[in-house]
Amino acid sequence: MRKFLTVLLAALFVFLAFAQAKKITIWTSEAQVPILKKLADQYKAKYGIQVDVIQVNFSDIKPKFLTAAPAGEGPDIIVGAHDWVGELVANGLLEPIQNLPEKDKYFPTPLEGFTYGGKLYGIPYAFDGPALVYNKDYVKTPPKTFDELIALAKKIEKDYGGEVRGFIYDYKNFYFSSFAFFGMGGYVFGRDKTGKLNVKDIGLANQGAIDALKLLKRLVDEKILTPGDNYNTMDGLFKDGLAAMIINGPWAVPGWKQAGINFDVAPIPDLPGGKKPRPFFGAQGFMVNAKSKNKLFALDFLTKFIATKEIMFQIWQADPRCPSRIDVNEEVMKRDPITKKFADFLGTYGLPMPNVPEMAAVWGAMGDALAKALDQGVAPEKALADAVAQIRAQIK
User: Fold this and answer.
1) Measured over all CA atoms, what is the biggest interatomic distance in the chain, rounded to whole angstroms?
2) Whole-angstrom Cα distance, residue 227 to residue 356?
3) Are residues 138 and 264 in the same domain?
4) Alpha helices in the chain (DSSP H)
5) Distance from first CA to last CA of the chain, Å, rounded?
6) Are residues 114 and 181 in the same domain?
7) Which domain holds residue 228?
8) Residue 228: helix, strand or coil by DSSP?
9) Half-sphere CA count of 170, side-chain side, radius 13 A
10) Which class for 367: exposed (0-12), middle (13-18), buried (19 or more C-beta within 10 A)?
11) Which residues on adjacent β-strands are paired with residue 202?
């Protein structure tokens, strides 16, 4: 009898939670808003529960969530990167995903990205990262080496009287410049004998990292890149047909198509000495606010609706990154060579971003180092040494 009452009370609790959850709220960035609103309508039509989709700048989602969630405010679900997990879990803000249906249908790497301390804290829908993207009206054959890229960029700018940029990317953003640092032998955190990340072993000022920063400085010194270059400038010029080559990821594909750009994708060119570029890649996924009053409903929405093959395929159609579900990925590869080219490059040479809390200290420090060395004339050795000192000070 007692067992029956326990089960009955548990069922009643779930029922009341669902009854009270007239709506849940999702914070997501611009690229996912249209499809999530469409899916929210489907879910409401089927289950009678409203899902509000709120657009937040990608770079603002995590800091705003860190402020809002502890106060019992903010969204029930956030859509973001796997490398947020460690910091958010350390702050007690993410609810574990105890039961993910068809877990064996997912690639292991995206799942590992959302796993921390042996628990899964997010449902990945895609993995992505940067590659070389080029306008085929200007580039017939993509460059294989950085020397070729520099020569081609200069030729294009000369041929078009400086009206078309030969090459541009968000070079002061460590995420987009990671290909050079890791390809040349730098690293963020080393690993101990067991394979666990050792956050006291920081390889961002070693000789490989210095050589990488000197390569980027060459691009600036030879006026391939300019101080005002950033993501929005790059994206706008490419969509306007005024940039021949960029480094960007599959999240931007819909915008290029809408702009009518004749584009293609290739590996980032080889680095000096024949070294292969090794860019960061990240898994994108859905995470549940541990402080949410609607977390049972949010978990149900994700595990029984969003995580299904049908819905994941719809998400890919609207936001064409490399799908995290193996069965969706197999369908995509048959019909989308662009996604396949991103997946082939990243699957071969990409490195997953560390999801430990200490990673939060890296972005700002390395952004400062890139700006100092490439815009302010600080020696690469000093800029990187300062960055490592800044990281160490923050993770003590």
Assistant:
1) 85
2) 32
3) yes
4) 2-20, 33-47, 58-68, 85-90, 108-113, 146-159, 174-183, 207-221, 231-239, 253-258, 295-301, 309-318, 326-335, 337-349, 360-375, 380-395
5) 54
6) no
7) 131-279+355-395
8) coil
9) 17
10) middle
11) 189
Give every CB contact of residue 318 below 8 A, 6+ residues apart in sequence: 32, 34, 35, 38, 254
> Which tokens in the block code for residue 213?
């920063």
**Same domain flag for 319 and 369:** no
35 and 102 in a single domain? The answer is: yes
For the record, the structure tokens of 374 come out as 């490439």
Q: Same structural domain for residues 265 and 196?
A: yes
Enumerate residues 6+ apart whose C-beta is below 8 A from 12: none
pLDDT in tens, the chain (396 residues): 555 444 444 444 444 444 455 799 999 999 899 999 999 999 999 999 999 999 999 999 999 999 999 999 999 999 999 989 989 999 999 999 999 999 999 988 889 889 888 899 999 999 889 999 999 999 999 999 999 999 999 999 999 999 999 999 999 999 999 999 999 999 999 988 877 789 999 999 999 999 999 999 999 999 999 999 999 999 999 999 999 999 999 989 999 999 999 999 999 999 999 999 999 999 999 999 999 999 999 999 999 999 999 999 999 999 888 899 999 988 888 888 898 899 889 888 988 899 888 998 999 999 999 999 999 999 999 999 999 999 999 997
Residue with tokens 């070389």: 132
66 and 172 together in one domain: no
CATH code, domain with 104: 3.40.190.10
Residue 257, both tokens = 């198509």
Instruction: Please say whether the beta carbons of 164 and 156 come within 8 A.
Output: yes
